[in-house]
């Protein structure tokens, strides 16, 4: 059982870059990954709400930083997917800038969920995301998504391969299997998020409370 009730999560806003986000306080957990990796689906599965985050068969659907609130001061963030080939170069650079900026400047960011299709893990941009997080001392939950696409033997092999590879980054990285379709790994995600949301919130919270 998880501490927080993720089912009550609601949409807050979409922003083209970090300047449009609400005050940089509280705790944010962001979902990042290649376009089509299953980020929006995972958010919907986690919160048990079909239409919370928009999903699509067309990669590159989520082009904005989408913000959701689980509870006051505890937010989930659906980040734009990276690595989609058929997006114009200029747009790609714009997203990548928004993404890099969010990761490097957002103080509220306390945990990053990196989602990778279990059949195509650890592409260059995934590695870059993980590297960024490790350098910024942000813990990472690596999810191997669409685990339902592999038979259970192949699934375990892939999990071990990625766990082994994750060690080389040296940071706080946990690797788990995930499937929105078959609801694999959902409790693991909720437990990890609970632990991140339970982190003490330095200095900011009291100034904004109504106590
Ligand atoms: N088989 C299977 N398909 C999935 C799973 N999760 C997502 N998909 C499918 O993968 C496609 C992309 O899912 P999204 O959740 O929209 O992916 P995304 O990472 O948010 O994509 P962008 O917003 O473009 O970055 C959709 O067609 C989903 O139905 C899963 O667990 N199993
Ligand atoms: Mg999406």
Which SSEs are present, and which pair or pack?
Layout lengths: L9 E6 L11 E7 L5 H9 L17 E7 L2 E5 L10 H17 L3 E9 L6 H12 L4 E6 L6 H16 L5 E5 L8 H12 L6 H5 L3
Parallel strand pairs: 2-4, 2-5, 5-6, 6-7
Antiparallel strand pairs: 1-3, 3-4
Bound molecules: guanosine-5'-triphosphate and magnesium ion.
Please provide a written account of the structure.
Necessary for normal cell division and for the maintenance of normal septation. This is Probable GTP-binding protein EngB. Belongs to the TRAFAC class TrmE-Era-EngA-EngB-Septin-like GTPase superfamily. EngB GTPase family. Pfam families: MMR_HSR1. With 211 residues, the chain is an alpha/beta fold. It is 34% helix and 21% strand. Strands 1-3-4-2-5-6-7 form a 7-stranded mixed sheet, with helices on both faces. The model is unreliable at 203-211 (pLDDT under 50).
Would you list the SSEs in sequence order as H and E?
Answer: EEHEEHEHEHEHH
> Which structural class is indicated by helix and strand composition?
alpha/beta
What best-fitting shape do the alpha-carbon axes yield? globular
Q: Kindly report the average pLDDT value.
A: 89
Low-confidence parts lasting 5 or more residues at pLDDT below 50?
A: 203-211
Which molecules other than protein and nucleic acid are bound?
A: guanosine-5'-triphosphate, magnesium ion
The proportion of strand residues reads 15-25%
Characterize the largest beta sheet: strand count, sense, and whether it forms a barrel.
7 strands, mixed
Distance between the termini: 30 Å
If strands are numbered along the chain, what order do they take across the biggest sheet? 1-3-4-2-5-6-7
How many H/I helices? Answer: 6
Rg measurement, Å = 16 Å
Number of separate strands: 7
The helix content is 25-40%
InterPro entries: G_ENGB_dom, GTP-bd, GTP-bd_ribosome_bio_YsxC, P-loop_NTPase
Keywords: Cell cycle, Cell division, GTP-binding, Magnesium, Metal-binding, Nucleotide-binding, Septation
Function: Necessary for normal cell division and for the maintenance of normal septation.
Cofactor: Mg(2+)
């Amino acid at each position: 059982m998880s501490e927080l009730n993720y089912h009550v999560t609601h949409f807050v806003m979409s922003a083209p870059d970090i300047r449009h986000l609400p005050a940089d306080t509280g705790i944010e957990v962001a979902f990042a990954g290649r376009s089509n990796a299953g980020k929006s689906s995972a958010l919907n599965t986690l919160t048990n709400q079909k239409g919370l985050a928009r999903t699509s068969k067309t990669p590159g659907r989520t082009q904005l930083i989408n913000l959701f609130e689980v509870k006051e001061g505890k937010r989930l963030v659906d980040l734009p997917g990276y690595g989609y080939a058929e997006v114009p170069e200029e747009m790609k650079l714009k997203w990548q800038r928004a993404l890099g900026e969010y990761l490097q400047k957002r103080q509220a960011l306390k945990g990053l969920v990196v989602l990778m299709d279990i059949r195509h893990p650890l592409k260059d941009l995934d590695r870059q995301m993980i590297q960024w997080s490790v350098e910024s001392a942000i813990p990472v939950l690596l999810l191997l998504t669409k685990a339902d696409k592999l038979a259970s033997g192949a699934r375990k092999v892939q999990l071990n391969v990625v766990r082994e590879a994750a060690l080389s980054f040296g940071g706080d990285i946990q690797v788990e299997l995930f499937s929105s379709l078959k609801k694999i790994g959902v409790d693991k995600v909720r437990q990890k998020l609970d632990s991140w949301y339970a982190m003490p919130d330095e200095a900011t919270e009291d100034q904004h409370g109504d106590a």
